[in-house]
Amino acid sequence: MIRSLRRTLDRRRQADGRHGWLFDPYTGDEMVAIDCETTGLDTRTAELVSIAAVRIKGERVLTSDSLDLRLQPPASLRGDSIKIHRMRGVDLEDGDALEAALEKFLDFVGNRPLLGWCIDYDLAVLDRQLRPLFAFGLPNVCIDMARLYLRELHRTQPQMSPTVDFESVAEALNVPVMGRHTALGDAVTTALMYIRLKKGALTAR
Amino acid sequence: MVRRRCDGDRLMVDIDLSQLPFTLLDDIGRERVLRGVDLIYFDSDAVILEAGQPGEFVYIIHKGEVAEFDPHAPISQSRIAHYTAGDLFGAISILDGSSRYRFKVEQESLCYVIPRALFLRLCDDYSTFAEFFRRGLAQKTRLLAERRIESGVNMAGFMLARVSECMRAPLIVDAATTIAAAVSRLNESHADSLLVGKGGRFGVVTKTDLLNALVMEGATQARPVIAIAHFELVSTGPDQYLFEALVQMTRHQVARVVVVERDRLVGVVELTDVLSYFSSRSYMVGLELEQADTLEALARASARLPALVQGMMTQGIKLRFVMDLLAALNGRIVDKAFQFLVAPRCRAQSCLLVMGSEGRGEQILKTDQDNALIVADDSDWPDRAIVMQRFTETLHTLGYPLCPGNIMVSNPAWVDNESGWRRKITRWAERRDGASLMNLAIMLDARGVAGDTRLLERLREHLFANCSRDELLLSYLARAALHFAAPLTLFGTLRKPRHGIDIKKGGIFPIVHGVRTLALECRIGETSTSARLEVLVEQGRLESEFAADLGEALALFIELRLKQQLTHLDGRQNSEEPNLVVVQNLSSLERDLLRQALHIVKDFQQRLTHRFHLEY
User: I need a surface site. Which of A37, B85, B352, B594 has the fewest CB within 10 A?
Assistant: First the structure.
């Protein structure tokens, strides 16, 4: 609710701006699966470490034309998050500056619908970084893979008590987990989950 | 588009690029593949590529199963091939412009796809990569063999040595040389033998010959050495494998062969020199065989053959040479046993034949004894039946199982005099029923191993004279090679892993029998399939490329079967079906080879159909 209000507001403001086209309704048949690695789990303080996005077209995941951005090391990069995404300061030294990275990201996703695993978290972090620099949040339609899976599971197998963590969903959908805890790997896996679910992986059984 | 990736392990695309054909690219090429692939998901029963449709991608299966169909073939035979995880398809469709067959998903599949444009660019930039897809089976198996050798099998290196690497310069003396001069020449050059030239021909004189002449015959030292020289020389070429030279020595029971290049004598290979190369078992078994003077000793030597085969196979020696050596050794065993049991007088009046795979020299482990005896018309051999009964029993104790079809010399039907055999063959050729055709096929593969082999030569002439012009008989015979097309269809439906492809029926038999039929038509006296193929090429009946592919396909089938037999030998599996190959147990390259080999069989069957008018 608040999000759609904000989006209307943003659209007004951006109508004649450089990013106005992002607010146009999307008419194509593609989607973009995204994933971000961050320095923490608190959306108010977490900084972006890497952003990945990969396009989905029909049953095809366009890994050859994907976006895999690494950012300059944020101040809050600390030991505990390095353990998860395995990116140290040195790995990020030649990374993009935040603004340039977000610009590339916006260019890549355009006005296509976005897909992500627990996408609300990624959106919150991205929006927090976008607003001060571009004066708008991501206007795209967003689909949360985890929620979509839960809904589909309830519809087809109401008796099941689901485990909804990334690995077990991938297994239930018979999707190989590609490079877990790299942004691009998770994005591709999420994209494959989506295709499988749309193809009726749950109803088939 | 913006993409940034630092190092390989951060790429999430995990195709196994350490397999052929990607090993033909360099790191940059492989990096291009990794960057260029997309992922596509296919539902069960989806058609990935329709026949006649242009190829857009090269597919590499990450997960799932895909079948290849020939839409023009009847349903029962339409299934051509089967692909599972790690397999690659679609490349040929791109190179040819359109797909020859239909690719359909058997089990939901996730595929990596290399776009057409990238694939073609890779082919342009890496010629060996491009060649891989255009190559025939023969070349592919060579790649496989090369890779095997590279993978640290150091024995293979010198087992595959050429004659030229091991030969000595010939020690040639002129015809006037005396024994005394010859001995001092031998001592000077630390050699065991020398060659005497006379009128463009050469004879060999060994130290043993000299000793015998001086001591046993009391020759004087001034006698010319040419008088004691042997002029029947076994020769080989400098490019032959040393291994083949060893086979020749075993077969002719000599200790040296001369090396001839373009009619010029260039060297000598001594058995002792070969030994320094093969310190290993093959020669030891041969030696033990030669020295065996009792049946027990012979049995001991014969029991070592399976281990020898296993050893040579793991050393990566080409199957054809292993088979050749084994045929020679088995021939010697049978010959020896024959000598032990049959009086010399009777041996001179008869010819012992081995038939079936043994006759073709294509058996690897000991197979059933398939043998027969031709006796000269004027022979006088009253206790023949008893001796032959004993002979069969002896071979049995030497480790050759009895033939379930009773095609053995203990069976009076397979022992006859020459004119009796002629009548039999004429009768079989006239009848043309199943049993007669089988008997003819068996006789075609007969090889004489002991006694007077001229008896067999004459009989073969008779067989050719009777049959090779008989179109009707030939087409009856050829039909059998088409009989077992059906097992091919099993290829795709291997849902249950215990099923398998019967490579004997589906692969070995059609090739062996088809080539046999062609050999009969062209009156080729050779019995091994590869030798027959060579002659067929010489006579212009087959293109050399197709013949090479057929030979390789056959070798592949035999090798696969042998692997299974060896596993059974180790007792790891207890199945009675060594001919069933379970596709899932093979590596993806082996699967690829098997698939191609079966394609070749199919092509060959089509040619036979056309040649012998078997369309209906």
Answer: B85
